Hints:
This protein folds into 2 domains: 2-64 and 236-258, no CATH class; 71-218, HUPs (Rossmann fold). The chain has 9 helices and 7 strands; from the N terminus they run H-H-H-H-E-E-E-H-E-H-E-H-E-H-E-H. 47% of the residues lie in helices and 11% in strands.
Amino acid sequence: MIVLAKLAGSLLYPLNLALLAGLAALLLRRRPRLARVLAVFALAWLWLWSTPWLAERAARGLESGHLPVLPAQLPVVDLVVLLGGLADPAAAPARPDPDLNAGADRAWFAARLWHAGRAPVVLCSGGRAPLSGAASAECPDVARLLVDLGVPETAIELEPDSRTTLENASATAALIERLLASGRIGGRRLLLVTSARHMPRALAAFRRAGLDPVAAATDHAGRPERAFSPALLLPSPGALALSTSVWHEWLGRIWYRLAPAR
């Protein structure tokens, strides 16, 4: 079910939707007016979502409720929960180290929170994402990165089974109960670390699982300080990637509203 939902959602990403419209225009050549409309739509749609101007504005809409904060501005809690989605796991011998992406800010910020004394434990949550093709869970590699950033192994807990944000939340809730029972942590207060545009969906998922996290957003992509210039209307691969991540969040929020509670 999860894989089917991911596949269906991916068809609505800007690039894929433009390709589908372009393909439809080719198949409908015998209806030239409709074919022209579809071809123009495909080109205009792809161009718009490939511009930094639209991509950054869309990202700011998701991030507006979770502005950047310093570690000292956040409360002292029982643990930091670091969500995955920041690396492709290592696959020795071809790739002995994980391949970090733009979301790697999450690990850096989680390490900063630990060094600032915001929590004694960092919980890495994240297994193999659907459609990723990964051979192993992500969170062990994220733990290696945290150790490189100065967080001791004794301060790190792993949750390697979840595949989605909803599963991140439910698996984390279960692990927190085990950590409480063992005396590893003293309460359920937590800071939730993820990308700012992912934070609204993540908070909803964790609250649905019975937790009440404090948002610790990072990896902000919107740039409100950047003044408009015609160059922002030039398409770029980076802007298209950002737009795709925004659409991923929009579609994910719709799916979570439709998905039955567990």
